[in-house]
Amino acid sequence: MHLENQIMAKLKKQKGRSGNDKIYDILCGKCGQQTFTYLKLGKGGILRCYLSRILEPETIAKLQFDESIRKASDLPNLQCPDCEEVLGVPIKRRDGRYAFRMRQGYFHKKMRK
Ligand SMILES: [Zn+2]
């Protein structure tokens, strides 16, 4: 299936979306490499990226289904695939959801149309 179609199929399954929801490509702030694609709900900056809303790449997105992950330290850092700059560090929210705390200034975001 085409990548865009996969993303749209996944989006349709997400509940509680509003008109403020956007898809962002997150680029490495150091070398500009595309690192991952994120579904941002609502307004405001990107402070945390929930694992369940990372659309690509599959290598990161599939971690949300990995039952061997029990705590934040079981997850890898969110790193640039090219220069290995760390863009985000894993955290576990009180509600049990995993996310990456984004390092402000270490990434760029580019909205998809
Ligand atoms: Zn990089």
3D structure, described in words:
This protein is mainly β and 113 residues long. 13% of the residues lie in helices and 35% in strands. The protein has 2 helices and 8 strands. The strands form 2 sheets. It has a 4-stranded antiparallel sheet. The longest helix has 11 residues, at 3-13. The radius of gyration is 14 Å and the shape is globular. The model has no long low-confidence stretch (mean pLDDT 91). The structure holds zinc ion. Zinc ion is lined by residues 28, 30-31, 33, 80, 82-83, 85.
Question: What order do the helices and strands come in, and which of them pair?
Answer:
Elements: H1 3-13, E1 22-28, E2 34-40, E3 48-50, E4 54-56, H2 58-61, E5 78-79, E6 86-92, E7 98-102, E8 107-111
Antiparallel strand pairs: 1-2, 1-8, 2-4, 3-7, 5-6, 6-7
Features:
113 residues, mainly beta, 4-stranded antiparallel beta sheet, 35% strand, binds zinc ion
Q: Quick one: how many beta strands?
A: 8
Strand order of the largest sheet: 4-2-1-8
- Return the average pLDDT rounded to an integer: 91
What proportion of the residues form beta strands (DSSP E)? 25-35%
Structural class: mainly beta
Order of helices and strands: HEEEEHEEEE
Distinct ligands, ions and cofactors found in the model: zinc ion
What does the oligomeric state look like here?
single chain
How many separate helices? Answer: 2
Give the uncertain stretches in residue-range form: none
Report how far apart the termini are.
20 Å
Radius of gyration: 14 Å
Q: What percent of the residues sit in helical stretches (DSSP H or I)?
A: 10-25%
The biggest beta sheet reads:
4 strands, antiparallel
| Shape category | globular
